[in-house]
Amino acid sequence: MKAAFVLIGIFFLITARAAPFAVRVGEARIALDSPPGFADSSFTGSPRLQELAESQTSPSNRILTFAISDGDLRLFMTGDKPQFRRYMIVVTPKALERERMSAAGFAQLVAEALRDFGPPAAGDFVKHLDAQPQGRAHLLAELRRDPEVVSVLQGTRVPLPRRGFGGDKGQYVLSSLTLMLLRGKALNLSVYTLYDGPADLEWISATTARWIAELQRLNSR
Q: Is 72 helix (H, G, I), strand (E, B) or coil?
């Protein structure tokens, strides 16, 4: 009976964390939400989750949300080991929080962020990654580019054993990097997934596109 109450409590916690919420960035209130099947993990206060989140970004950025899958959150809350196969993060540059960014300023930020990426990989990206050094992200494709959103897909061949992705033996990680201008603030969205086959590529591309659209919708009001 006690276990049942624990599971019910976890269900309501996950449901609550899956709802849209607002964060203040400078003078602006930014509405955030996680894609279906994911929830913000900040309420747990877990040093392990905080460390994992911080490992995905620069110390010069402020983490606005770090979302893990509902399944991983349930495992974590019951004391079991999460898989961390997929997760996502939103950050904003600390130095720019109190500034209202113009379209020109955003374009400059994008140019600086993507300056060292080089051209996208041509052909079979797995073969391309196999020929690259381990642990370094490489540009695979441009997903979107317009005045307020630039999104790219990256791939990394990771060494084993790996940190942050549980015990899965996969060798590749896909990540999308999206820079957005919302209410005069620059946000950086990143989505991560292990790559085991084409379904993972389809998932990260579709999830990134839907997440961008949802955040734009929430912040257009």
A: helix
Residue numbers in the chain where pLDDT is lower than 50: 1-17, 162, 166-170
Q: How do 21-25 and 28-32 pair as beta strands?
A: antiparallel
| Cβ contact 191:204 at 8 Å | yes
The answer to whether 217 and 32 have CB atoms below 8 angstroms apart is no
With contact defined as beta carbons under 8 Å apart, do 198 and 218 qualify? no
**7-36 pLDDT, tens digit each:** 434 444 444 445 799 999 999 999 999 999
Q: CATH: 3.40.1000, 3.40.50, 3.30.1490, 3.40.470. Which one for 2-218?
A: 3.40.1000
Structure-derived torsion over alpha carbons of residues 203, 57, 106, 36, reported in degrees to the nearest 10: 30
